[in-house]
């Protein structure tokens, strides 16, 4: 299995509850290397552009409003099989379906406010990491 990079986001529901550090600890325990990281407050336009793949979905308007409702922490993570491994650590989108011990099971408020984001494939990981970080920042 190849070494990959993926994009993680600690969402506004998590930064608001001061669990940023807990989530970053878990990232390190799971042996990801944090290649780049920053805390920022997305504009609505940023959130709409980031989630453009979901623009026809009924939850798009609420999701994009939520994502700019407070600060987020974005991270470029690297390890072997990073994309699938980070999704495994996050757990299912809906915390009601998330496995025991996953971040969403432990921390999510609900299906929308589910604390963390992760890229879902090599193509989206490349686009999403480049959305926030330059090549130099992730080197
Ligand atoms: P994931 O984040 O697990 O990749 P999706 O890409 O399907 O999930 O959805 C992106 C985000 O949109 C989810 O993490 C969640 O915050 C929100 N979301 C997804 N489905 C719903 C829904 N049915 N109702 C409200 N919010 C949703
Ligand atoms: Mg997704």
Strand content: 15-25%
End-to-end Cα distance, whole Å, is 20 Å
Main sheet makeup:
4 strands, antiparallel
Helix content: 40-55%
Ligand catalogue: adenosine-5'-diphosphate, magnesium ion
- Tally the helices: 8
Low-confidence stretches: none
Structural class: alpha+beta
Q: Looking across the biggest beta sheet, what order are the strands in?
A: 2-3-1-4
Question: What is the string of SSEs from the N terminus onward?
Answer: EHHEHHEHHEHH
E-strand count: 4
Mean pLDDT: 98
Rg over C-alpha atoms, rounded to the nearest angstrom: 14 Å
Please state the overall shape, judged from the principal axes of the Cα atoms.
globular
Write the layout of secondary structure elements.
Blueprint: E1 3-10, H1 12-16, H2 20-29, E2 33-40, H3 44-50, H4 60-67, E3 72-80, H5 82-90, H6 103-107, E4 116-118, H7 122-132, H8 135-138
Antiparallel strand pairs: 1-3, 1-4, 2-3
Residues 59, 63, 93, 111-112, 114, 117, 120 line the site of adenosine-5'-diphosphate.
